[in-house]
Amino acid sequence: MAIVGLVESLLTAKIVDDATDTYSSKNRESRGQGIANIVTGLFGGMGGCAMIGQSVINVKSGANSRLSTFSAGVVLIFMIIVLGGLVVQIPMPILAGIMVMVSVGTFDWNSFKYIKSAPKTDAVVMILTVIVVLMTHNLAIGVVVGVIFSALFFATKISKVEVISEEFGKINRLSFNGQIFFVSIDSMMEQINFEIENSTIELNFNNAHLWDDSAVDAIDTMVRKFEEKNNVVRVVKLNSDSRKIVSELSQLNENHLN
């Protein structure tokens, strides 16, 4: 619940920043909420976080500073302590109606337009998160499911590496575009023609990045297979981080690296 509360607070801060054309320190907000919840727990109180609905209604009502939040808290305490006997007499249907109007006022109706134009993966995550929250009545579960599917879609997206093959006389250049790690290696290797013989093979990583030992092992495998066909192999244009991991883990020598 601490994670869910933090996510909701950061989302609320982003919405309020956009509405008021201001900037807030997200790190300070996170630290403040964490410290406040720890102190509250020591006194037997309940943890809390920023509320999107109340914040949006507050801003739409003309609030533009932290004084509005403080005032809302003071009024709430006053109503509970001083006017508690009157508040409990308010019929539940009236409170339900107020909550419905708050929902109507804070709902972003442009979300329906966004679903039509957004990438399919984003739309699926959005709809799936809403469905899970409604079915489980648990925001935490909905957030976790949304994060998991977002991570899966992201991993699938970056797992596609493009290999462009070009021939310049006796030189065959293979240019790699994308993020090379354990997930993307299979699709990358399938695009390479290892039947080239008696040529110079240039493996160009100008638009690629190596992330792990599996990526380094894939390069070693490529070099070995090409050299078995009497080719001269050069690995060129590795960025500094990729070159560092290759120098630490690879079996290649300096003749291969340019």
TrEMBL record:
Listed InterPro entries: Membrane-Transporter-like, SLC26A/SulP_dom, STAS_dom, STAS_dom_sf
Primary location class: membrane
Membrane topology note: Multi-pass membrane protein
Subcellular location: Membrane
Keywords annotated in UniProt: Membrane, Transmembrane, Transmembrane helix
Residues of the STAS domain: 174-258
SUPFAM superfamilies per the UniProt record, alphabetical: SpoIIaa-like (SSF52091)
Pfam families: STAS (PF01740), Sulfate_transp (PF00916)
Gene that encodes it: ychM
Top-level lineage group: Bacteria
Gene Ontology annotations for the cellular component aspect, listed alphabetically: membrane
Cross-referenced PROSITE patterns: STAS
Name of the protein this chain belongs to: Sulfate permease family protein
Transmembrane segments: 35-57, 69-88, 124-155
